[in-house]
Amino acid sequence: MGASMTELRFWLLPVLALALASTAWLAVRLAHSRRAQREERERLDHILDGSPVVTYVLDPRTLAPSYVSGNLHRLLGIQEAQLLLGDAQWWRSRLHPLDRDATIARFERWWHDGASGPLMHSYRLLGAQNRPIWVEDTLRAQRDAQGTALACIGAIVDVTERRVLARRLEQLTESVPGLICQLQLGPGTRPLRLPFASAPGLRGVGLTPEAVLEDAQPLLSRVLPDDLSGVLDSLMASARTLQPWQHQFRLAHPELGERWISGHASPERLEDGSTLWHGIMTDVTQRKRVEQALANNERQMRALIAAMDDLVVVVDGGGLLLGFHQPERLRVLTGLETPVTGQPYPQVLPAAVAEAIAQAVVQLQLEPGPVHREVAWAGPRGDLWLDLTVSVMAEDGDAARPYLCVGSDMSARKQREDELTALATTDALTRLPNRRHFLTRLDEELGRVRRYPEEETALLMLDLDHFKRVNDTYGHTVGDRVLQGFADVLRQTPRGADLPGRVGGEEFALLLPNTGREAAQAAADRVRREIEAMRVRLESGEAIAITVSVGVTRLLPDDDAERALHRADQALYRAKAAGRNRVELAWD
Questions:
Q1: pTM of the prediction?
Q2: DSSP 8-state code for residue 435
Q3: Whose CA is closest to 550, among 564, 535, 529?
Q4: Same domain? 128 vs 203
Q5: Higher pLDDT, 172 or 320
Q6: Are residues 482 and 392 part of one domain?
Q7: What is the 8-class DSSP label of residue 223?
Q8: Is the pLDDT of residue 563 over 90?
Q9: Could you tell me if 433 and 530 lie in one domain?
């Protein structure tokens, strides 16, 4: 028996030792795995904390989140200690009272219907001091392996500034006659979107904002069938060439009947390959009726022209001025005190107007009209724009037959279009070019560098140091003043070709064409010193000082915008890592 026990212990001891060693090894592996998961979670939280998008996971039964990214307190403008993330009642209290019931009901209806697609909606949250914050929220269902919805994953983006800009644009369009709009054509497809349309303009063509909802089809359905293909073909041609779109067409107004519309828009190519037009459509029915009446009866022509406030002249194919209407209007637009008929009109009319008429006459001798032209010139009272229509007055085949030229003063409309373009390309807070406009100019400069590789162009990335601390300590209003002061410094670039822009929250960029290494470093250091010396004074008398870190690179012929910005960013990160308030180069 004793021998048997001894043998048993002899065999069992190694087995037990091996089992204990395996258990210890598994425990070490488990500890390493948990630590790795914790470190990965911390890295993910750090990335999300720097993002403008707040992400969260929601329990649909309690409407309380089980996870929220750490940047929520920055969105709300409150301290992290004030967040009660697991309290459903606290979350409900953060919804604006006017939006609370509708927002919750919309979510519950979506969840009850199976949450088959994303839920995208806008509402207001209450930030610090109950400041309303407009957000766009996108929710998707999280499902198990069997497809059962378990929870919701959401992403919230602050769109308050966009709402404010949209409201300003809406107020501007209230006083503008015509339909101010944006048209968007996707790559390789004909369906049109209507991202923006002024409400007064929609009412002018017999539509409502509710009937459109970004879809251009309700507007296209009003275009007369005989004119629809011309509208679409002219838009497709403008999309191919990126030339301004100009077209006149008829639409059926539900109350006023057939109306003539004149459309003018400037196109731009977006990053996704689609084409976006910014422009205006105006009702020119009265003018069209006048033109058609003039072509049929000279007596009616004179009676109708008498009621017009346009420039009207008659010329012949041989280049002579045969007549004019309203000498006072002609004097205002051209500066001519005593027009002389029977003289060559290039010697009487402004050169730009005379050239446009001559080109139209040549075109009308080859094909039926009328012909439309937009003409610009420096008039006696500043720059003028004329919407010129030239048509044949007598179809007798004579080369010297008369031509009627009707010009409407469109200077005010052009000024409004320029104002709308500025709104679309300018950052509302700093009045610097926004990210889209800066990237467009950067792509243009890269094209120039590829054509002339011997000419150097510098790109600076600038980031305010510890700007988050300013917002957290003094609030966003003071932070906005700091950003505006910084923008003022960037605007004081000594050369007109230099382009500053706001490309992020506290990130700015500066493009310096024809600038070498030493000049670029000097310019960067000048900005750094001026920001270091700048003070933003509060009502309490306290003066806030701030510094900036700068990364400098040069554009290379094989660069694209993303690669150049990344290289400047890397130099900027080195400046941050080296202690901030400094300039680092990535030139070679």
A1: 0.39
A2: H
A3: 529
A4: no
A5: 320
A6: no
A7: B
A8: yes
A9: yes
